[in-house]
């Protein structure tokens, strides 16, 4: 019963996406459209008002680049806070945690000013670079590395590896599951991001998929069936990613030290 309730939105997306506009707004409800309009797919991807295919590619590029960069930067920061002793490490850690209490919307204006002054509007750099750091990801990496077996690191140091070598040749290969968990969370968040891409992606060629969906919604003559179909297509990559990698999400929470 619960599974059916969770699947109901997906059914509505497909049903309305393959129906005509008249059937969507008809007072009598039918479980399936009388005629399945497969041509809605071609209409969606050939629309001149909203470059939906381009927006899917843009979202894939942004999500992949942002995830790769975030894993490198945040894992190094988390490992440094967990394993490299220095005088102000605790103060730095508390400063990172303090940024979690700042609402994201507060930073939009100064971030936009910086991105605009650098000439990164409607550019992948403006979409990707501001999201390469996440205080929450740094916190998760630090919690994970605190429980990482020190014996493995000490064995690497005995074999002559530097701290840098220990991290890349011992710590990272033995933490693939946790890295995958953070990657899944980051990809989903980047793919679903709307407000920042809406501000930065001012050219239709730089729209991400969420901005393209809003373009279908706010058009002068909204095509409701195309909007539903576009929503169904846009969530398909995330659904597939979640289905194949959901075990890493559970494993990531378990290994991060957040459970009691």
UniProtKB/TrEMBL annotation:
The chain crosses the membrane at residues 56-79, 91-115, 127-145, 178-199, 226-245. It is a multi-pass membrane protein. InterPro entries: MetI-like, MetI-like_sf. It is found in: Cell membrane. Residues 56-245 form the ABC transmembrane type-1 domain. Keywords: Cell membrane, Membrane, Signal, Transmembrane, Transmembrane helix, Transport. It holds the Pfam family BPD_transp_1. Residues 1-21 form the signal peptide. Belongs to the binding-protein-dependent transport system permease family. This is Carbohydrate ABC transporter permease.
């Amino acid at each position: 019963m619960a599974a059916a309730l969770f699947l109901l939105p997906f059914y509505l997306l497909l049903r309305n996406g393959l129906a005509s506009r008249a059937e969507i707004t008809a007072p009598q409800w039918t479980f399936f459209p009388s005629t399945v309009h497969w041509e809605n797919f071609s209409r969606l991807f050939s629309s001149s008002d909203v470059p939906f295919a381009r927006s899917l590619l843009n979202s894939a590029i942004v999500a992949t680049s942002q995830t790769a960069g975030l894993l490198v930067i945040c894992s190094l920061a988390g490992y440094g806070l967990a394993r490299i002793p220095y005088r102000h490490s605790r103060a730095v850690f508390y400063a990172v945690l303090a940024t979690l209490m700042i609402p994201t919307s507060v930073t939009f204006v100064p971030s936009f000013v910086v991105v605009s002054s650098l000439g990164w509007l409607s550019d992948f750099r403006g979409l990707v670079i501001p999201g390469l750091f996440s205080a929450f990801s740094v916190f998760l990496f630090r919690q994970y590395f605190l429980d990482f077996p020190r014996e493995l690191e000490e064995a690497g140091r005995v074999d002559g590896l530097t701290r840098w070598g220990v991290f890349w040749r011992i710590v990272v290969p033995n933490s693939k599951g946790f890295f995958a968990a953070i990657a899944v969370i980051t990809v989903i968040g980047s793919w679903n991001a709307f407000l920042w891409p809406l501000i930065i992606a001012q050219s239709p060629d730089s729209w991400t998929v969420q901005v393209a969906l809003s373009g279908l919604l706010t058009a002068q003559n909204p095509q409701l069936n195309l909007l539903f179909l576009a929503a169904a297509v846009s969530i398909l990559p995330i659904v597939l990613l979640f289905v194949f990698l959901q075990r890493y999400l559970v494993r990531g929470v378990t290994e991060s030290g957040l459970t009691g």
